[in-house]
Amino acid sequence: QVQLVESGGGLVQAGGSLRLSCVASGRTFSTARMGWFRQAPGKERKFVAAITWSGGGTYYSDSVKGRFTISGDNAQNTVYLQMNSLKPEDMAVYYCAASSRKTLGTMSIMSEYAYWGQGTQVTVSS
Predict the structure, then answer these.
(1) Tell me: the pLDDT tens digits for 91-119?
(2) 3-state secondary structure string, the chain?
């Protein structure tokens, strides 16, 4: 089992920045990739960004590309999501997820991730 704990959410004005953190514990050696997903009220959970531990490859949804940056510290079992130029439409609960899968082309697929955190709220005021 892998446990994930997110932090760093909060209230920010449009155009502002936040950095989310996710600390993994437990059988972290089994994880191959970490991802961030978000869910706005009344909407489906959607992919935001992901990173592979091997090689550090990153992948972003089109809606955040150029504004968000995912990074990780494998030694600390921590992944970050730096969010800049925030927009009201970025407001959501952000979830950290971990996967042991390495299948190419699947970093944005929710079902590829077996472990999930509790989420952290990001509120963007206009």
Answers:
(1) 999 999 999 988 888 899 999 999 999 99
(2) CEEEEEECCEEEECCCCEEEEEEEEECHHHCCEEEEEEECCCCCCEEEEEEECCCCCEEECCCCCCCEEEEEEHHHCEEEEEECCCCHHHCEEEEEEEECCCCCCCCCCHHHCCEECCCEEEEEEC
Strands 10-13, 120-125: pairing kind: parallel
pLDDT tens digits, one per residue of 36-51: 999 999 999 999 999 9
Structure tokens at 115: 């472990």
